Predict the 3D structure of the following.
Amino acid sequence: MPKMKSNRGAAKRFRATANGFKRGQSHKRHILTKKSSKRKRQLGETMMVAKQDVKSVKQMLPYA
């Protein structure tokens, strides 16, 4: 049986941890002038993947 391929887009976006997968947040790349400092600061934090989405992330990253 050949090895399964990881979804390369997902591999760049998610990292496996002991408790699930961590991810970065979107909307921090451009059009930053209208966003408040608080909003931009909070967008810089990493978050965990939602419980409902863990199954699909696991399918995309079979060896994570």
Residues 37-43 form the longest helix (7 residues). The helical segments are 8-13, 37-43, 54-60. The mean pLDDT is 96. The two ends are 19 Å apart (CA to CA).
